[in-house]
Amino acid sequence: EAGVAQSPRYKIIEKRQSVAFWCNPISGHATLYWYQQILGQGPKLLIQFQNNGVVDDSQLPKDRFSAERLKGVDSTLKIQPAKLEDSAVYLCASSSRSGVEKLFFGSGTQLSVL
Amino acid sequence: RKEVEQDPGPFNVPEGATVAFNCTYSNSASQSFFWYRQDCRKEPKLLMSVYSSGNEDGRFTAQLNRASQYISLLIRDSKLSDSATYLCVVNNDYKLSFGAGTTVTVRA
Question: Which of B43, B99, B101 shows the shortest C-beta gap to A107?
């Protein structure tokens, strides 16, 4: 079974630039999550999709972050404009049901904002 | 108060030792609990779910204490490959909250 695919693996940008991350979940998984993990901290949920609808985006900084999941499959997360404090690993995860019994994570995108 | 709190460690233990650590959670209504393992520069992976009656998976034992609002993880006969960060995860109405992790280093 193919895992969760993410790209790019690494990204370096300057502050105020924009950046986009892509995620393709495991086939058939209805729920997709974007997490932000800052060094030394646990993952923090940014947004959760159920199919192509948003379930929770309460911690998404909507003034600069946006995400979409068209057709209920792959998803993109965008930051515009980036700030220094956005430097982190952005993890995409998926699960087979709206339940949270098991999340499968992608390898993540490591973002450095200079 | 944070939703999920963990002792960051690190716990440095020799091979073969037993190591145990706890995680506390703030919401008494939390429904389910998990331990995830995260290797250095890797993604988290589910280690085990934590059941009310406690459960074992090989050398790993997880316990839940609802009265005191904590879960625990015990690793017996530690292996070098157990070196990782262990993330405590709490589910509140299908919203997962991750702790910052407890780092375990097993030395030869």
Answer: B43
